[in-house]
UniProtKB/TrEMBL annotation, chain A:
Protein name, UniProt field: L-threonylcarbamoyladenylate synthase
Enzyme Commission no: 2.7.7.87
Lineage start: Bacteria, Candidatus Roizmaniibacteriota
NCBIfam families: L-threonylcarbamoyladenylate synthase (TIGR00057), T6A_YjeE (TIGR00150)
Catalytic activity: L-threonine + hydrogencarbonate + ATP = L-threonylcarbamoyladenylate + diphosphate + H2O
Compartment annotation: Cytoplasm
GO MF term (any one): tRNA binding
UniProtKB/TrEMBL annotation, chain B:
Gene Ontology molecular function: iron ion binding; tRNA N(6)-L-threonylcarbamoyladenine synthase activity
Binding site for Fe cation: 115, 119, 338
Protein known as: tRNA N6-adenosine threonylcarbamoyltransferase
EC number(s) on file: 2.3.1.234
Gene (UniProt): tsaD
GO biological process terms on file: tRNA threonylcarbamoyladenosine modification
Domain of life, per lineage: Bacteria
Family listed: Belongs to the KAE1 / TsaD family.
Gene Ontology cellular-component terms listed: cytoplasm
Compartment annotation: Cytoplasm
Length: 368, 371
């Protein structure tokens, strides 16, 4: 067993271990995972031996992109469109397998769980490897997943440690939950395990807490930022008082490295400097106090409508006339937050028409 | 040491001339009436109003100023101080532009002041006769509670602060304003809530949550309380409209104001206001109590618009009595709101430490933090 820090990990060394049927502990976009060649019977057997995994329990796999995904499963156009909205991201999707990976990884129904992680190290690794790699959490069956190598090693008895060939150590991972598992084999989408980000359909997310809303916001922003734009990015948020609009904006801010976002109601808007390379200035506007839409044009916000800026408007339903101006000058994402119950929210995201089609074509051409 | 101070952080265009802690002249042009129509500050209106009034306000400040029956002019002051932030960007710009212009013209040193510093020093502001004569007895805990801010600050020494806790979303004053709005009242709503609550002896009827009181840190969060209140009101409205077969839900804002004539509901509104205020105040009290325990500092200064509330003052007096400490409030009512007098007094201590703006280069910082 060898431990190497992530920044010193050499692709060639890792590929050699995988090719020899070895087991690798690796950081991911969720928790520490166990990587093995998903097409090798021996490697997968070693993995199930390590995990004490009862036979018949499926194990999901990482693929690097949509073309590798399509080789592994039967997928319909409609399902593909949904996945293109979500992936890469913290989701495991279950689809009928094409049986190109070890049968030990498939379920009794011959389905397989797939992940396209939002984690560069694993994506590069799988792309170079050219085959799917197992994507199970690095813990013994029935135990909790690990966010640091130290906590994993503390759990393992010596005989288990011996089964691991290589550990890639990225230190403490952020406390993201394991992925959301989505079963697409039934006529209705089924969520089998709830991760940080839970969705209802390709435009609708479900949040059960402010912490989840923050993660959903960051996830949505991250997706949008993958597409380069010459226009400022504008979020228009709608929803009743107390529904969590500022919480959503906090998620956007956190992704940009801004941690001190507070309600701008009192002064109508606050301006922040972003530390994200793609965004320069972040403006958080609250239209709660605005009563007449035509007065809106005097807000003095036009100067912010330029490339590299991000604007969030709370109470966007009051934006009225200015929407046309915003549409003309910016790239707009509408976010509608609804109360489902006192704690639970439904977050719907909608883009301007042109934005939507661009997003799709971009995803299809993506070389991930 | 004479200082001309300017503050245009939100909806007051304010200027003052101070000498040490004494306020020799103080002028405010309040835009509250202007903003009542909008239900809050309205940026373009605020900017235009500041621009239209800043010259008048500064002139008026000097008109009212007499030192030993002698008329003074801008060139007679030693320094010019101005609020750099936090506040509304377009409003701050107006005050800064004016201050820089005057400082350049009359070759005066420029002092930038954090608006929150002003609120902290507001407890030590004196009238032109030098009253009240409060001495500084450092260290203090400073509690700032206003429409835009809720913070607990360690006030170690002159111009030496450390933020111990602050709101993560809404300010206490904003929460009170929004609750007032939900009950059908206008802006500013804090004083309406205070009056309604006093009519039912500030009792708590509904026990709304006290946010973050178990967190063991000194941060605040009032948005969850707002959510609970909104949800509570809505469930009541639904129940009531079902009973009367009449829907109140369609209106863009819950229009409880429309039903205020009904005696039973009027009682309800007082109870709601009181319970909400109690949730906000008890949270402030619990955090202040925790701050006293954590720092073992039992002397407190309080600034900001919410401390105009006499019931909150009473609660804080009771709290410090428990620790045999003392609590200081702004000695004059105008000091609870935004004003330039407190900016001048804070600037006085910055001048003593030779903290001046270099080359008149001063940018407004809308989210300026205390440090």
């Amino acid at each position: 067993m060898k431990i190497i820090p992530l920044e010193k990990a050499k692709m060639r060394e890792i590929l050699t271990v995988l090719n020899a049927g070895g087991l690798i502990v690796s950081p991911s976009d969720t928790v520490y995972g166990l990587l093995a060649d998903a097409t090798s019977e021996n490697a997968v057997q070693k993995l199930t031996q390590f995990k004490n995994r009862p036979p018949g329990k499926p194990i999901s796999v990482f693929v690097s992109d949509f073309s590798m995904l399509k080789e592994q499963v039967e997928i319909e156009k409609k399902q593909l469109r949904l996945l293109q909205e979500l992936l890469p991201g913290p989701f495991t999707v279950i689809l009928p397998s094409e049986h190109k990976v070890s049968p030990l990884l498939e379920s009794e129904k011959r389905t397989i769980g797939l992940r396209i992680p939002d984690y560069r190290f694993i994506k590069t690794l799988v792309r170079n490897f050219g085959k799917p790699v197992t994507a199970t959490s690095a813990n013994l069956a029935g135990r909790s997943p690990h966010y640091s190598v130290q906590s994993l090693l503390n759990e393992l008895p010596e005989n288990k440690k011996k089964l691991i060939d290589l550990i890639v150590d990225a230190g403490m991972l952020p406390r993201n939950k394991p992925s959301t598992i989505v079963d697409l084999t039934a006529p209705q989408i089924k969520i089998l395990r709830q991760g940080d980000i839970v969705f209802k359909d390709k435009k609708t997310y479900i949040s059960k807490s402010p912490a989840q809303t923050i993660k959903i916001a960051a996830f949505i922003l991250q997706k949008i930022l993958r597409e380069k734009s010459k226009k400022p990015l504008i979020f228009i948020l709608e929803g009743e008082l107390g529904v969590g609009k500022t919480v959503f904006v906090k998620g956007i801010g956190e992704f940009l490295g801004i941690k001190n976002i507070i309600s701008p109601t009192y002064v109508v808007y606050y301006e922040y400097v972003s530390i994200n390379q793609l965004i320069e200035t972040f403006v958080h506007v609250d239209l709660y106090n605005i009563q007449e839409a035509d007065e809106f044009k005097y807000l003095g916000l036009e100067k912010y409508l330029k490339k590299g800026n991000l604007l969030c408007f709370e109470w966007g339903e009051k934006a009225g006339e200015i929407i046309d101006l915003l549409k003309q000058k910016g790239k707009i994402a509408y976010v509608r937050i609804r109360y489902i119950s006192e704690k639970k929210r439904e977050i719907t995201i909608r883009f301007g028409q042109s934005q939507m089609s661009k997003l799709k074509s971009q995803n299809q051409n993506s070389k991930l | 040491m004479l200082i001309l101070a300017i503050d245009t952080s939100a909806d007051e265009t304010a200027a003052a001339v101070t000498s040490e802690r004494k306020v020799l002249s103080n002028v405010r042009y309040s835009q509250i009436l202007l903003h009542k129509k909008w239900g809050g500050i309205y940026p373009s209106v605020a900017k235009r109003a500041h621009e239209e009034r800043i010259d008048w306000v500064v002139d008026e400040t000097f008109k009212k100023l007499k030192v030993k029956s002698e008329k003074l002019k801008v060139e007679d002051v030693d320094y010019i101080a101005v609020t750099q932030g936090p506040g509304l960007a377009v409003a701050l710009e107006v005050g800064i532009k004016k201050a820089v212009e005057l400082a350049k013209k009359y070759k005066k040193k420029l002092i930038s002041v954090n608006h929150l510093e002003g609120h902290i020093y507001s407890c030590f502001v004196q009238n032109s006769n030098g009253n009240p004569k409060r001495d500084f007895r450092f260290p203090y805990l400073a509690l700032i509670v206003s429409g835009g801010h809720t913070e607990i600050v360690l006030f170690k020494d002159q111009v030496d602060y450390k933020v111990l806790g602050e709101t993560r979303d809404d300010a206490a004053g904003e929460a009170l304003d929004k609750a007032a709005r939900m009950l059908g009242f206008g802006y500013p709503g804090g004083s309406v809530i205070e009056r309604l609550a006093s009519e039912v002896d500030n009792k708590d009827f509904f026990n709304f949550p006290r946010p973050m009181i178990k967190s063991n840190n000194l941060d605040f969060s009032f948005s969850g309380l707002k959510t609970s209140f909104y949800y509570f009101l809505h469930s009541r409205v639904i129940a009531r409209s079902k009973a009367t077969k009449q829907s109140h839900l369609r209106s863009p804002r819950p229009a409880f104001g429309g039903t205020r004539d009904d005696n039973n509901i009027a009682l309800d509104i007082r109870q709601l206001a009181s319970s909400f205020q109690e949730a906000v105040f008890e949270t402030l009290l619990i955090k202040t109590d925790l701050a006293i325990k954590q720092t073992t500092i039992n002397r407190i200064v309080v600034g900001g618009g919410v401390i105009a509330n006499l019931y909150l003052r009473k609660l804080l007096r009771i709290l410090v009595k428990k620790y045999r400490g003392e609590v200081l409030f702004p000695p004059f009512k105008y000091l609870t709101g935004d004003n330039a007098a407190m900016i001048g007094v804070a600037a006085n201590y910055k001048a003593k430490k030779r903290l001046f703006v270099k080359d008149f280069k001063l940018e407004r910082i809308p989210r300026l933090r205390l440090s």
